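Per reviewer request, we include the raw input and output of the structure prediction for the construct analysed in the revised manuscript.
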Amino acid sequence: MEFAWPLALLGLLVVPLLIAAYVLLQRRRNRYAVRFTNLALLKEVAPRAPGWRRHVPAALFLLAVTAMILALARPQLEVPVPVEQSYVMLAIDTSRSMEANDLQPTRMDAAKEAAKQFVGALPKTARVGVVSFSDRAVINLPPTEDHKIVIETIDKLGTQAATSIGEGIVASLSVLPGGELSQQRPANPNTPGNPQTPGQGSTQQRPASNVPATIVLLSDGASNRGVSPLQAAREAKERNVKVYTIGIGTREGGTVMSGGQLLRVYLDEATLKRVAEMTDAEYFFAPTERDLNRVYKSLGTTVGWEREQTEVTAGVTAAALVLTLAGGLLSLLWFNRLP
């Protein structure tokens, strides 16, 4: 917390003085009671001691004074506010290995559910698109503000063969501001089921964009098709696009049936980490459904948002007023007098 007028905080020095005055007043009352020599009679005629309750109104009053002084200093907090215009591409691995069952019921199903939660946490103004990648990358949905369509598109994703992480990044870049497909839209861009496929391996340099753009890429394996993931990451870096990467599944790998054979699939964490590092983003490892949900939830409160200094004087003043009223009401209710 920061303060626009920090000198006002010197007023907090009065708080310990008020506490000391209250303690002295309580001791004075105790000494007066002891001077009453007939203690047995005093016990009979004196009203029942309120115990801890007698200190509550005074404590609330002191807290109210503290809040008032803080309000005078004009406190400011960093609060998250939605970016006026932001683009987010969800690049999801749809290779056959996503059918592995080390995440329940499968990696693919767990990824879909977490991705939908992520979309729900984004600002309403964020333009969100979906790219799936297996042996090639497919633009399932260009960026749109219709998050309902985004969720429907995620639900329809299915698995295919191979893994092309680099192609997933390239396809995402193609529909972000500055990309070769960013100005090209289907007749109805809000209608899923009209996928586009960019030119394979197309990594020609594009100008950087000032519009905040992010790619959130999820994969469970090693890239074995298309353009190199690191080459694609370099293009993203040149375009000022951050690529957050998520690796799912256990490090020991999962099993999947392919061609009548049971195969073990492994996660290429080193490449995913390097892609994130090259684009000034972050890599997340999600070995369980709970971890995956937590990662997407964290990203949903980061991507598309920015932190802004906001003055909260009104809120602190309101808190001081509430504390004052609460102390007064409790004093009248318990002792029939104001503190």
